Amino acid sequence: MDLLNTTNTTRGGGGGAGNKQCNWLYFIINVMMTLVLELHLIWSSLLPISYSAAIVTHLPGFPGPLPFHLETGYVGVGGGESSEDVQLFYYFIKSEKNPEKDPLMLWLTGGPGCSALSGLLFEIGPFFFVVEEYNGTLPKLVLKPHSWTQVASIIFIDSPVGTGFSYSTTSQGYETGDLKSSEHLYQFLTKWMINHPEFLNNPLYVAGDSYSGKIVPLVIKGIADGNEAGNEPFINIKGYILGNPVTDQVFDNNKQVQYAHGMGLIPDELYESVKKSCGGNYVQIDPTNVHCWMDMLSFYKCTLGLNPGQILEPLCFFASPKPKEMVVGADGRRSLIRQKSSDFFTPLLPIPLVECRSYAYSLAPNWVNDNRVRNALHIRKGSIGKWERCSYGLRYSVDIQSSIQYHANLSEKGFRSLIYSGDHDMIVPFLGTEAWIKSLNYSILDEWRSWIVDAEIAGYTRTYSNRMTFATVKGGGHTAPEYKPKECFAMFKRWISEEPL
Fold first, then answer.
1. Of 115, 147, 210, 403, catalytic
2. Quick one: CATH architecture of 49-254+371-501?
3. Is 425 an active-site residue?
4. Can you tell me whether residue 334 is helix, strand or coil?
5. What DSSP character marks residue 323?
């Protein structure tokens, strides 16, 4: 194939030698481009798109065969009917109870950009790392007693594209955002259901935590709209679950000051002063309001030594950090005050690394990036480079500043919902979540009360007439199942069975 126009023009005398040199140069470039094109065609043929799946019976680091059904695979999605440049990777674990009848759940991890494997390993999945000092050998896996897969089949998906093992065959495919990723997820579900028709009649729930609080309602709306339009297959969507959800910047971030005061982290005098000087707005501060800026600087000086993901646990940011919402507002921008005040903060007491909760995060890349593990998970060779637990270099657009209106829309359609918050999370304080739920103005059916696990108060809950249940998880952080797995499993098991918490 002639890829270049080899007609040359020369200037002045000596054109013959110049033409020969140019012709040789164009010939070499032509050959190189032809080789690149052929290599691309070979590459494309080696990476089948649309749909692929494989059963995983053994995992390196886990002794013996897996005692549950694990499937991994890719589903191709994209901008048009024939476009499948985006390849979304998933882990599917069948319910260990009764997969023929138990609910099916699609789980989205937050970020945006945190791998599904993070939710599977550190939150609600059936196995976890043995946390011990890394010695260069493959980290070991152990079963978890409070996996949500005991009562539901769960699809853990790497979304958006560029997260975990999900990739694009084109550069343009990596451009994504709130709206596009939710569209991709609807396409994913449609194609996954076609290839798993045995689950078409199972009740479906979409769930997630942290930044997924903005995405899950969009996905539910897409499914509902598709069903109403008569799209096939019909998806038996029943509701959604959100944990510590990013929802609305004003509600989420403006409650951090009130939360800190209620937890005894700042004194009464500072709280009263900052309320007055900032007028209750701690997110978008007038640059000329010097008094407010000084009060907020004092606020951050009081709280920067804390772990905002769980204020009772040590701040181990020298290990792999918690998700990005720890230092970034719901609009994707860092607070100037927090950015500047962090410059002078240094942990006063060194903490042994292995004793930090985040130490387990550092084990994940050592396990996932081992070729034996990648082969066992059936990862396409060459599709991505190094796996990261959370990828923050995504070409991602924050399209939705608030998802409250989507919740109102879904309430009108009658979907069930469970919204829960770890009450020791200062990233997305439960006060903010409670406030936007109240703003929907639905009447209360079951007034504020405690819910119990093993004869102890596990948190507090309230149920509204729009079939929305709000629950706090006592002692839970960002996100709650990582810190309180037993209590969160009990909460999920009761709610998914349509029992009161």
1. 210
2. 3-Layer(aba) Sandwich (3.40)
3. yes
4. strand
5. P
